[in-house]
Amino acid sequence: MIGASAGGPAALQTIMAGLHADIHVAVILVVHVRADTEDLMSPLLDRSSKWPVTTARERTRIEPGHAYVAPPGYHLLIERDRRFSLSVDKRISFSRPSIDVLFESAADAYGANLVGVLLTGANADGAAGMKRIREAGGTALIQDPADAAVPIMPQAALDMAGADLCAPLPELVAALNRMCRT
Amino acid sequence: MTGEGAEDIEAIEVDLFVEALRRRYGYDFRQYNRASLTRRIRNLVTTFGTGTIGQLTDTLLHDAARLPEVISGLSVPVSEFFRDPASFACLRRDVFPALVSYPQVNIWQAGCARGEEVYSLAILLTEAGLYERTRIYATDISPDSLSRAAAGIFPARDLRDSAERYRNAGGTHSLSDYYHSRYEFSKIDTQLMRNITFAEHNLVTDGVFCEAHLILCRNVLIYFTNPLQNRAIGMFADSLVRTGFLCLGARENLEFSPERQRFQIVNAATQLYRLKPIY
Ligand SMILES: C[S@@+](CC[C@H](N)C(=O)[O-])C[C@H]1O[C@@H](n2cnc3c(N)ncnc32)[C@H](O)[C@@H]1O
Are B219 and B249 in contact (CB under 8 A)? Predict the structure, then answer.
């Protein structure tokens, strides 16, 4: 579960390129983009990583070994039976898709089996979601604000939720590969 | 208390709330996708200031006057003029030419929110010379939204911000030809309102609404679980004239709906379907 905003596409490419493809997890990404943009992120990430990356479709089951990107203009949520659903409810922190919406629903669905990663960004989206992930027993990784292209978003999450690990990108990638292998 | 324990309590509260709403008032939200429904109920707790969902249920049970507020909170009428311009362009290109052959055209727009979509459609029908012969039935579950839609008054910036989408939808005039602004509000031209009928209709519990040549139901079924989605798709098929059209939201997925078999796809990117002819 990874959320990023301003400066996010580059950071997401770094992460996806560094993630081992043999780990038995699903990766779900939200990046703030304009609502009317096409699905640009999933082909971009698909090319630059070993993972199959597609735009999440409502009602479909989340498969391990696969990475999904929230569609522009919709909130992406995870149901308890681990399928995707979409909503066009109000923007949260000026964003739709919102990281909070995804993270909060994912915390309800996955509990302790969830790792939330929050990267660079220019608003406070994701902070409440990170808090809920930790409350539900999940793990929170936050990009070191000093390492982020735009530090506001990771800093807001640190202030509100704290983190299990706050580090520069390469260390986050290493931690993810370690945690998800077991 | 562990996080998991806390969530279990909330899941129980959501069930009880949904049950209270159904048994007391007949609104049935049991088959809505839980993740977004839960978010909306949490928002109601905040607006009502009840602290817990349990307390909200108590208020709901004993204070019938607050029902419309609850329904509008649960239905979140978020829309915009010409949302997904490509879908409107597709209606114009693939559907309107087929409607020309009917002397009288019925369109059912289910889930009309505050009317943004129905007025967008009315504008394009006007420009295609079809509006005169068309009757649009715009329905929604929420009485609040319906009265707002019928009033046709919107924040001026909603319309200003829609000019580009209007052009991308294939609009040929200037969007400002269709409304009058005063201070920070814009009123839709009454010419556009003449052939629109607003009515309450619940896709969960009500039946076929009218015989239609085109049905638009965008971004409503995304809130429904598979059985409820399938019920609605079957009802739409029953409402359509032979080879009538069904337009859904661009990101909707019908692959789990058996009633889907009754339709053929016209345009996948805009989720436009057409009822298969039965010989
Ligand atoms: C997100 S809005 C979609 C508005 C518009 N169609 C669009 O795509 O922009 C969803 C609408 O569906 C309505 N709705 C939700 N449940 C419904 C039901 N069971 N029957 C009829 N309308 C419903 C809501 O009140 C809301 O106005």
Answer: yes
B32 and B105 part of one domain: no
Full-model pTM: 0.95
User: Is A49 a catalytic site residue?
Assistant: no
Q: Could you tell me if residue B76 is left (phi over 0), alpha (psi between -120 and 50 degrees) or otherwise beta?
A: left
Q: Are residues B95 and B45 in the same domain?
A: no
Complex prediction ipTM = 0.93
Closest-lying ligand 1 atom to the alpha carbon of residue A87 = 1
| B216 & B253 share domain | yes
Domain that holds residue B50: 3-75
Domains in chain A and their CATH numbers? 2-181 (3.40.50.180)
Q: Hey, what are B216's tokens?
A: 């638009």
Q: Is B78 in the pocket of ligand 1 (CB under 6 A)?
A: yes
Q: Tell me whether B46 touches chain A (CB under 8 Å).
A: no
Q: Quick one: which of B200, B199, B217 has its CA closest to B141?
A: B200
Residues B124 and B249 in one domain: yes
What does the pLDDT look like over B115-129, one tens digit per residue?
999 999 999 999 999
CB of residue B73 inside a 6 A radius of ligand 1: no
